[in-house]
Design goal:
By secondary structure, the protein is an alpha+beta fold. It is 11% helix and 27% strand. The strands form two sheets. The chain has a five-stranded antiparallel beta sheet with strand order 1-2-9-4-7, with no helix packed on it. A five-stranded antiparallel beta sheet has the order 6-5-8-3-10. It is globular and about 50 Å long.
Amino acid sequence: MAFYLLITLLALMNGPLAFASDPSPLQDFCVADKMSPVFVNGFVCKDPKLVTPNDFFFPGLDKPGNTMNPVGSAVTAVNVNQIPGLNTLGISLARIDFGPNGLNPPHTHPRGTEILVVLEGTLSVGFVTSNPDNKLIAKILQKGDVFVFPEGLIHFQFNPGMMPAVALSGLESWCDHNCKCGVRIQTADFRRCACQGFHVGQEDC
C-alpha cells in the first residue's frame, strides 16, 4: 500500500502545474511573424527557415532615454516588439532612466514578476500588497542593489536625488503588459509618487 501511495505522490509532483504567467514554448523558438494576417493570442511563428540572427538582436540599450517629460523618467523596453525571437520565451528586459526626482509611476505587470538592479544613482522603490492589507513594502536602493516586484502587485520606482539614475529591469514575460494604476496608501513618499505619476495638484495630495 505504501508503495502505491509513493508512486501516486511522485506522479502528482511531476504532473503539470497551472501558472498565470506565459506558457512554456512547444519548440526551440517561435520568432514572431508580425506580417501574418492570422489573429492569435500573441504572434504567429515565422517560418524557421526564414529566421535570421537579427530576429534575436536589439542594439542601443547603452543610450539613455529622454527624461524631459512630466514624470521625469523614460522606459526603453526590449520585448517581443523589439526582438521578435522573444515570442513565447517568457522573458523581456527594460532600461529605465530617471532624471532628478524622476518617477516610474505606479503600475503593475499582470503576467510577470519583475527584478530590478540599479546601475547608477539612488532609487526609492516599493510595492503594495493585495487587499485587505494594502501594505507598502519599500526600500532605498543604491548602485548595485537588486529588488524584486512580485507578479501583479502595484509598484513604483522614484529617484529622490538631484543626479540622474539608471536601472535595468527583467520581466518573466515576453511581452511586458504594463498597466498604470493608483492606490490609496497613507504614506508621504507614496502620496508624493502618486501625485507626480498621475499629475495631481499638490492641493489634492
